[in-house]
Amino acid sequence: MVFVCAIWGLQQVALKIAEPYISPVLQLSIRSGLAALIIFIIFNRRDGIVNYLKSPRVSIAGLFVGLMFSLEFLMVASGLKKTTTGHITLFLYTAPLFTAIGLHFLIKEERMTRVQWAGITLAFVGIAVAVQFSWSYGAVLSGDLFALTAGLCWGLSSIIIRVSSLSTIPPSCTLFYQLAITSIALALSAFFTENNSFVLCDISILSLVFQTIIVSVISYLLWFTLLRYYKVSSLGSLILMTPIMGIAAGSALLGETVQPNFIMGSVLIIAGLILTRFGQTMKPVR
């Protein structure tokens, strides 16, 4: 999880660094398509990806997860143009909040305690505090809202994986669905919105290699494997390292400034998510 969080904290920074040479939407589409091809070549013989594609239940669940994944990254790409990578990373990783709320009503073992609900409330107060400065700047606020919507989409995709037949198939199959559908959806978006600029250079190539091999293949496979064996609420506490790493990376590599209210809001959000983690051993609300 430390490795996964470090990589995910850097991916928004890499997207923004390469933005002058390749649009984020196109970059996300290319990386997803290449990663889907790599996953298929490596894992199809062992995990039978083609066989799972023939299952209607798996295919329907995979389609919905893929669409959520596509929308998540479309929101990230849109937000990068309007706000900082630190804001994007923080609000994107509110996903565990939405996942915990959804699973509370769907799976008995995932029901939250009063302490966890207090943590959820505290985290959403933190979100309000973190965007306070953004209200004076329309572009920044819209970028923050894009990032928050991306977090919601990620949370919904985690719920679908947890409650559907995707939870019983190899992680490589779930990942293939997400990557393949995301590649197609974002390619169509880039084409119809003319958001398809691409200058072949060292920066664009290095960013694509990083996004494809490290982010889309290695880190995602690790994440889906963890989702199969650990409670989402447990992983949610460890994933809190990602916003901290992302904010630090944006400040160090892009020179982004961090507003006091954003720091305060970040602390409240992280504190709230910690409560949702450590409150899970207490008696659930009836």
From TrEMBL:
Superkingdom of source: Bacteria
Keyword terms, alphabetized: Cell membrane, Membrane, Transmembrane, Transmembrane helix
Location(s) in or outside the cell: Cell membrane
Domain EamA: start-end pairs: 2-130, 142-276
GO CC list: membrane
Transmembrane segments: 28-46, 58-80, 86-107, 119-139, 145-163, 175-193, 205-223, 235-255, 261-279
Bilayer topology term: Multi-pass membrane protein
Matches recorded under PANTHER family: AMINO-ACID METABOLITE EFFLUX PUMP-RELATED, INNER MEMBRANE TRANSPORTER
Name of the featured protein: DMT family transporter
